[in-house]
Amino acid sequence: MKNKEKLIIFDTTLRDGEQCPGASLESSEKLEIARQLERLGVDVIEAGFPIASPGDFEAVKTIAHEIRKPIICGLARATKKDIERAALAVKPARRPRIHVFIATSPIHMKYKLRKAESEILRIVGEAVRYAKKFVEDVEFSPEDAARSKPEFLFRVIERAIAAGATTINIPDTVGYTTPIEFGELLRAIRENVPNIDRAILSVHCHNDLGLAVANSLSAVLNGARQVECTVNGIGERAGNASLEEIVMGIRTRKDIYPVYTDIHTREIVKASRLVSSLTGLLVQPNKAVVGANAFRHESGIHQDGILKRRVTYEIMNPVEVGYGDSKLVLGKHSGRHAFSERLKRLGFRLSKPQTERAFDAFKKLADKKKEVFDGDLTAILEGEIAKIPQIYELDYVHTSSGTGTIPTATVRLKTKGKILQDASSGDGPVDACYRTIDRITGVKGKLLDYALRAITGGKDAQGEVTLRVQFENEILTGRGTSTDIIEASAKAYLSAINKYLHEPTLKRQGAHQKGLL
Question: What is the DSSP letter of 462?
Answer without folding.
Answer: P
